[in-house]
Write a structure and sequence with these properties.
Elements lengths: L2 H11 L3 H4 L11 E5 L8 H8 L4 E4 L14 H14 L4 E4 L11 H20 L4 E4 L9 H16 L10 E5 L12 H11 L5 E6 H6 L7 H14 L5 E5 L2 E2 L10 E2 L8 H8 L8 E4 L8 H12 L2 H10 L1
Parallel strand pairs: 1-2, 1-10, 2-3, 3-4, 4-5, 5-6, 6-7, 7-10
Antiparallel strand pairs: 8-9
Helix pairs in contact: 3-4, 5-6, 6-7
The structure holds zinc ion (2 copies).
Length: 323
């Protein structure tokens, strides 16, 4: 390995919380706040990373997001994940489905691979006792939107056959997308529509991404826009059904349909919408998970702390006393 390569690898490694964290870990706050966490060295190590970052919830991939081959997952790893989560009080565990899966694909071979791969996602999520499996609903290119929605529902049913989802804690969460052409789930109505299709098939809910909502064109930045967007979300998906919020600032303008995540408070969304979200009683039951870039060591820590710092603690404890 060349000196330059060694250097680069070293820099990459130093972004890993397991390497830089020492001594006391930050305490978790009054909300479920976490971040998408690396599974390098084995899935169970993600729980340790989340804890060291002061997170009480986290998200992982259980397979490479851009390759069909799943990660190896042994029984001992699943047990260790369980043990660490119990020890640290970390829940929910959210798994994000591989980006390759498109359950609405019009290509027979690709569709078949997607169903098979999604079945693997479900099996691994069950083995890891994950609470949520987040799925991008896919692209209906080559079909009508209606056909696409029906196919996704049928494909999930096919993938879940014989897996006893009903008796597990696992829920499939449909995530809203940035609204690219042919994508299912670019609007709240489409997410709601898909949930209606899926309800008879398996336990479902929604994951709403702030960046996707913003670049898709919803106004979440102005106070009035925020209220209106939350009202629209409540009337379609239902705020009670939003079990995970992906908290990402955006690099691009509202309505741009470009999906590039930015650090909390440093993008075109800014801090205020996150403050409103984290202090909204109607979202208190949800988990808030950042999928922000890690450009430098501790960026993950900084984004978690940024979200935590927005929770109005006084208001929360006053409400708790009343309850
Ligand atoms: Zn997301
Ligand atoms: Zn995104």
């Amino acid at each position: 390995m060349s000196a330059e390569l060694t250097e680069r690898k070293h820099k990459l490694n130093m972004k890993d919380v397991l390497l830089w964290s020492q001594g006391e870990v930050p305490a978790p706050g009054p909300r479920r706040i976490g971040i998408h966490t690396s599974t390098a060295g084995g899935v169970e190590r993600a729980a340790e990373r989340a804890y060291r970052l002061g997170a009480n919830t986290f998200q992982i991939f259980s397979s490479s997001p851009r390759q069909w081959k799943p990660y190896g997952l042994g029984k001992s790893q699943c047990l260790e994940m369980r043990r660490l989560r119990d020890k640290y009080g970390i829940a929910p565990l959210v798994i994000h489905t591989s980006y390759l899966v498109n359950l609405a694909s019009a290509t027979a071979e690709f569709h078949c691979k997607s169903v098979e791969s999604f079945r693997g996602e479900l099996q691994r999520a069950l083995a890891l006792c994950a609470e949520y499996l987040v799925l991008h609903p896919g692209s209906f290119r080559g079909r009508s939107r209606e056909e696409g929605l029906e196919l996704v529902a049928r494909s999930i049913a096919e993938a879940a056959q014989g897996l006893e989802l009903e008796n597990s804690n696992l829920r499939i969460l449909i995530e809203n997308t940035a609204g690219a052409e042919f994508s299912l789930g670019g609007s709240f109505e489409q997410v709601a529509h898909l949930l209606e299709y899926l309800k008879p098939v398996c336990p479902v809910g929604a994951c709403i991404d702030t960046c996707h909502t913003h670049v898709c064109g919803y106004d979440i930045v102005s106070e009035a826009g925020w209220q209106d967007t939350m009202r629209q979300l409540d009337q379609t998906v239902g705020l009670g059904n939003v079990l995970v919020w992906h908290c990402n600032d955006a690099k691009d303008q509202r309505g741009s349909r470009r999906d590039r995540h930015e650090h909390i408070g440093q993008g075109t969304i800014g801090l205020e919408p996150f403050r409103r979200l984290l202090n909204d009683e109607r979202a208190e039951h949800a988990a808030f998970i950042a999928e922000t870039p890690i450009d430098h060591a501790r960026d993950d820590l900084r984004n978690i702390e940024a979200l935590k710092s927005l929770v109005n603690v006084k208001q929360t404890s006053a409400r708790k006393k009343r309850a």
